[in-house]
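Consider the following assembly input.
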Amino acid sequence: MDEARIVRRGLGPRLWLAGGWLLLVLLAAIFAPLVAPQDPLAQDLMLERLPPFWLDGAEPGYWLGTDSLGRDLLSRLIFGGRIAFIVAFAAAIAACLVGSTLGLIAGYFGGWADRIISRIVDIWMAFPPVLFAILLVAVLGTGLSSVILAIAIIDWTRFCRVIRAEAMGQARMDYVENARIAGYGRIGIMLREVLPNVLPSIVALLSLEMGIAVIVEAILSFVNLSISTDDPTWGGIIAEGRLSIHQAWWVLVFPLVTLILTVLSFSQFGEALKTRFDPVLR
Amino acid sequence: MSACLDITNLSAVLANGQRVLRSVSLSLQPGEVRALVGESGAGKTMIGKAVLGVLPSSVRIVEGNMSLEGEDLGRLQPRARRTLIGARTALIPQDPLTALNPSRRIGPQMTDRLVRILGWNGDKADKRVRQLLDEVQIRDPDRVLKSYPHELSGGMRQRVLIAAAFAAEPRLIVADEPTTALDVTVQKQILRLIADLQREHGTAILFVTHDLGVVAKISQKVSVLYAGKVVEEADTARLFEAPLHPYTRALMAATPRYTDPFASLKPVDETVLAGLAAEIAAADQTWRHLHG
Amino acid sequence: MAEPLFSVRGLKVALPDMTRKPLIGRAPLVEILKGLDFDLPRGSVTGIVGESGSGKSTLGRALVRLLEPSAGSISFEGRDIAHLPEAELRPLRRDLQMIFQDPMSSLNPRRTIASIIAAPLRQNGLGDNLKTRVAEALQRVGLPQSFAGRYRHQLSGGQRQRVGIARALALSPKFVLADEIVSGLDVSTQAQILTLLEKLAAEMGLTVAFISHDLSVIRRLCRQVIVMREGRIVEASATDALFENPKEAYTRDLLAAIPLPEIDADWLRPKAPA
């Protein structure tokens, strides 16, 4: 019978491409001091606005060219990846832990717990997210930890809503009643019967959220509210590149492409993981 | 006079090459009620869908002909085929709730078909629908036509769908397990309605069911299916008097009967299943031989 | 006569009606069971039959206390369990087991069959020799040992329902609620599952409440029958008496509505005026 067939899906090009890009950026970020061809902060006005390697006037060792202060763009992107990934992981995991836990409780227990949590989520979602983030960072003060905190505070609702809906569906399944018949308590059932079934969604959302965190961090850097201005961040580079778009388009285009590829890879990676994690045809 | 529906040697396969219909042939005379009976996976619903031209995209017809009142469906262009099927056939579905759009009122859902496919004007369609609602013994058509599907009971919804199926005067109705979701007392009323309307309108019905009890009450002829193959075809009266195929006999012995509790509910014998498997394998071998 | 396993008096259950829930505040309650009195004798199978809306499933859920009644008493072995809190129910759970209608939804898709059968054992302090106990449970329902490591989607409908039975019986309970356990199955599979349940109930001396809409199945399996309609008991009696001499018009209508697999030209004709 069709439904009794086990499905073994291959990894698929989506997972390979997205995972490959993320791994590349991650490794570059971790080993930034080793792989970056130049010091990302070293200014040299003799070398300002060098074009990328295939254009006339390029200097060897400055593969993607330099910005208006003569800093090496590739090196800045690699070091910027460090901050992007730290923010992505820390903020997404924090948002995931808070949001999924509350979502699980709201969806499985229902009743008062659900009403309170859902109302909070509704109120939260009414705030424009980017303005909320800017406001939070302004209050918390700039710096890496406040950026992470701001993103987690804003985006836990995304996890909460999705996981709540899935847990509600699970709570209606007979195997949940079956576990009560077997003598399990409510918390035990939630962890044992419900959580494993919503886990693929949590994983997919987590990956998606990492991409979103990268964007939010870039936006905060863009409006100069992220980390100290010295450290290179993708958003910061984009902001600077915007100023010299007519003289040196590459300063804007390369960080943008990096950002887009990374965010896209996160969301594709999550979706691919979800289908992979789900050996069950339901 | 040509048959209302003629299916010859119909075979269909899934994407992985597995055969789901195995050289099915059957022929319905005008006004005949033919039961297709079998267990899940027997292909009975698949045949109904093939006739209506709504097979899922994963199923491909690889051989065979179907003709409606002498017109070969395979020879028509897709558009002409749709028009022909739309004008001459109708479906009474299993689940009356999902068959109706939950966000539209009953009235327009019933008249739509008449207006769009048969090109009737609104008044004529409305009159016709009311007449049919009367025939399925709905006494307050105004309320029903203004209702949304969820506001009606299961039996009421099924009546609406029966009325809708007969409204366009189709020559053939495919009834796909139309009473499976209903309580027995409602099932009896609905079967009675279908039988009455069928007699008055002279419509042929392809009645898909898993229930031999329903087969016995509603049909004149019956095709017993197993794994996409017709294992026995007979007049209904003959089938219940003297079933020939071992599987038919096993199915009858398995069907519960409160009048004879210990002679019924007999699990199907292993030898019967083994015999069926051999029969299917032999048929597949011949088929593969012929089709390389 | 021995004391019945269950003795139910004045049982009422009311559930919130979500379709009439106002925008703010609680949904109004609807009474699903409107005062039931009956006994379930030990060691026999009792059929509970009714059409949709009769409250038969609600009654089952109240017996195993997945629901709390709004009034009345449910005495199980002489102890009223109608309003016991969850914590006090837990030790009783091993004696009150249930087999579900839909074996697909009653088995967690992410657990192996062995883990599903072992769960109630572990939770009820029978965690030693788990492997042997699971093996025994599989054998009891006629499933090969190789099924222990499989998942529900690798099983057919009938096999899933066997797992459901194995799981419910693993604890050797005193009472089993079987809620429409064959209504989703093909007739040939249905016959196998019923024969299995019939055999196991006799061997283990189980008290079973067998909920079904199918009177034909009930006649085969049950010693007594309770006929329900709209939250009340219409008729309750020994099976043979009920089928041979139904007292209530509703029971007679139910019987007359069953399409038996035999030719009867008059069956679809409107009833002749009496």
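Confidence is low (pLDDT under 50) at residues 1-8 of chain A. Ask yourself how this observation constrains the way the partners meet.
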